[in-house]
Amino acid sequence: MLDLYRMLLIKMKESSLSISDIARSVSIDKTFLEDHISNMRELPFDIVLKISDLFPKDGMEIMERYIEDVEETENIFLSLEYASMHVMVNASKRLIERIRSNKNKELKKNERLQEWADIYQISHEYQSGKIPKTKLLHELRGKHPHSIEMIVFKKCLELYILNVLQKFDIVLYFREEVEQNIFSINPGYIRSSFLVRFCEIYYVAAFRRPDSLDLARFYANKIIDEATSFGYRVHAFNTIGLSYIFDDYDLALSYIQKARDLFKKRESECGSALRLIESNMMFLKNVWNRHDDVPDTHDQSEIAHYLIKNGKGKEGLEILDKIEPTAFRLFYRWLATDNKEDLYSAVEKFRQNKDFFFLEKLALPALISTGIDPKLASLLCS
User: Fold this and answer.
1) CA nearest 370: which of 326, 322, 337, 348?
2) Which of 30, 51, 233, 274 has a CA between 20 and 30 Å from the CA of residue 312?
3) Residue 338's Cα: distance from chain center in Å?
4) Could you count the other beta carbons within 10 Å of the beta carbon of residue 49?
């Protein structure tokens, strides 16, 4: 724990926080914290997690240093999930290797821990790009865990891949069964983290169907309430905002702004989320014509969208001609040219992607506006 405590003391000094301040903030006795730091003893996982939240920009690094040296069995279980949840590829690899190594006989003979390492190894190989999504499903189907935690984790991994493969109806079919299993796990970090995984899977699946938007918002809000991962919360705020884009400008804007504000607090946990947030913000303003000037964004398609909506179709088309023709970009071409072939191509791409939300909210009204019979337009968008 030397590296962890060295870093912690440096961060405390930089933030003008004392041992007493830290202990008070995480609701533990000052002497307990002093004893563990001065004697390099391993703190419980939950306490280190709370401490990491006190240092927003360095929280993940604090946890990674803890995971590198964790030794107590119960803390190892929790560290496996944290490292996987936050895609700490190197930390996951080293932790799994230690669990499986013959050097530590106590860990090696712990059958439950070996079972966990077995399933997390498959997840790690997928996260590190060693196995494709189809092989991941094959690998998982060959595993038959006994602990309820790994039964749930295995199912979450399977459902995640089914979402990637756009098998949303299959995902939604298992919803009640998986949720019941999660709540059979004892309260604590593992259950909370699995619940966040589950909720992300189901708001993604539900969002792709406009008749399930309330369900998507419900599960996204549950992630916001759980707050075990800032990255997941950022995406949840962003998704709720996106769900209101065509119906309520102010509500959509408030959620997307919350996503952006939260991202700035914990950038290290949120990956490349900022570009997605900015694109959605630009898309929202373009839909409602709320831009004061050309949007400041990396998203060239939304710059083209803005130009087309503001009577500069030729300039917008020049941008679109230089980038890949996605469903949205084909739709923007139709806005500029009024060429129905562009609109039909956009509808087809939305259908291929199973983007039923945008089919109903964006493509369907457009088709009807061209004079197509509403029943036929609905059929094309189903």
Assistant:
1) 337
2) 274
3) 37
4) 19
Contact 311, 268 (CB under 8 A): no
Assess if residue 86 is contained within a domain.
no
Range of the domain at 376: 297-382
pLDDT digits (tens, 9 = 90+) for 308-334: 999 999 999 999 999 998 999 999 999
Does residue 32 fall inside a structural domain?
Answer: no
At 44-94, the pLDDT tens digits run 999 999 999 898 888 889 999 999 999 999 999 999 999 999 999 999 999
Distance between CA 284 and CA 280 in Å, rounded? Answer: 6
- Condensed to tens digits (0 to 9), the pLDDT of residues 84-109 reads 999 999 999 999 999 998 788 888 88
CB 23 within 8 A of CB 29: yes
Average pLDDT over every residue of 116-137: 91
d(CA 82, CA 264) in angstroms, rounded, equals 21
Q: Calculate what percentage of the chain has a pLDDT beyond 90.
A: 71
pLDDT over 70 (residue 272):
no
State the total domains in the chain.
1
Residue 137: inside a domain, yes or no?
no
**52 in a structural domain:** no
The DSSP code for 212 is: G
Q: Which of 104, 358, 349 is nearest to 242 (CA)?
A: 358
CA distances 202 to 84, 110, 180, 195, 307, Å, are 19, 33, 14, 10, 36
**Structure tokens, 142:** 């060959």
Instruction: Name the pTM for this structure.
Output: 0.87
